[in-house]
Amino acid sequence: MQPATRSTLPLASVITVSDRSAAGTRADTAGPLAAQRLADAGFVVTTAVVPDGVGPVRAALVAALESNARLVLTTGGTGVGPRDATPEGTAGLLTQQLPGVAEALRRSGAEHTAAAVLSRGLAGIADGPHGRAFVVNLPGSPAAVDQGLDVLLPLVEHVLAQLDGSDH
After folding, report:
1. What are phi and psi of 32, to 5 degrees?
2. What is the pLDDT of residue 8?
3. pLDDT band at 59 (very low <50, low <70, confident <90, very high)
4. Can you tell me the distance from the alpha carbon of 76 to that of 140, in angstroms, rounded to the nearest whole number?
5. What is the 3-state secondary structure (H, E, C) of the chain?
6. pTM for this model (two decimals)
7. Is residue 139 within 8 Å of residue 76, measured between CB atoms?
8. For the segment 150-166, what is each residue's pLDDT rounded down to a tens digit?
């Protein structure tokens, strides 16, 4: 990211999706890791923790978009468990999907663990009341978040510039 003053730094939102973290029975470790990496990359970062389910995920994403977040990351809820519904909560808000980004995240994750291919996470563009945002679902483990940000951070500046109408 380009150096900027605090008032012009892009806003990023990290949403942790976890029944246990939302209930306070398990500490959220993936969300704070993502928030720190994004802050280190030059973003002003907000965080939220919500329970699993389509409704809570969708509501948190809408709130992030309404706050003018340009990058919205979710952590958790991308697997095949009975309460994993982050992709379903995300899909209806995406005006454009970026399947290559989601596939790159799975491919990179598979270099570390075979289970990475089970992630159903989506990536794409959502329209908010203040503009367009890059939205990505990451798995809930800190390792997957760290590895996912290694894939995403080199892309973010280009994606945001494109959303603002910049030429290729």
Report:
1. -60, -35
2. 58
3. very high
4. 4
5. CCCCCHHHCCEEEEEEECHHHHHCCCCCCHHHHHHHHHHHCCCEEEEEEECCCHHHHHHHHHHHHHCCCCEEEEECCCCCCCCCCHHHHHHCCEEEECHHHHHHHHHHHHCCCHHHHHCCCCEEEEEECCEEEEEEEECCCHHHHHHHHHHHHHHHHHHHHHHCCCCC
6. 0.94
7. yes
8. 999 999 999 999 999 98
